[in-house]
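Researcher: Structure prediction, please.
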Amino acid sequence: MGRQDNSGTPGSRPRASGSGATAARKPARKPARKPARKPARKPVSPVYRRRRLFVGAALLLVIAVAIGGFAAVSSVLNAGQSSTGGQSSSGGGAAPSGQETGSAAGPDTTASPAATPEGDGCEQNLVSVTAATDKPAYAEGENPVLTLKVTNGNRVPCEINIGTSQMEFLVTSGSDRIFSSTDCQADATDLVKTIPPGQSETANFPWQRNRTVPGCAPIEAKPGAGGAYYVFTARLANKTSPKAVFQLN
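Model: Predicted structure follows.
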């Protein structure tokens, strides 16, 4: 009997032969990556905890003191109002704005140039008065026109009394008092005007080249002419203007 070839036997696996054949390998499996651990929270130190407690207690103490002070002030104010009835019974307090405190029969002749300011900041020292003539020199028989000018130098409107009760037109020559508009003034009146900031009001007085004396006594003397120089000074209440010089021919 000849030798049988087992290579074709059913059920047997073929074996690889030769150096060029390699056995199939499965890919290596990577190990699963573990999640990173969070760093452990640092425990709060006892010193830091005590500091937080101290700051919180101090804040509560400040709030309690503030509330207590407010309550004390409120109680004092309430006590004052209850003792006075909320109003002054003596009548010495300031009157409400826009109401008159004097008699309605006539004007108050004691008003000052800045009698009633219209707003805060209306100061009397910022109200100025100046004097001027319409010409520097006058021919014979020509009468000068004397001008009083009041200017509000405040930044707010001011109520200013520019009535004849407050003003004077005074003419002098050296030490000689020549003329005053108050010497023969028959009826002094008030005229309160609201002057805006930086604005002015003027009053003109035609002078008849006459002399006057206090009390308006008759006087026959006349001011000298022929080129004589005179000084005009304007006054409004307690404010006096700088001098204005003019010449009479």
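Model: The helical segments are 46-84.
Researcher: Thanks, that helps.
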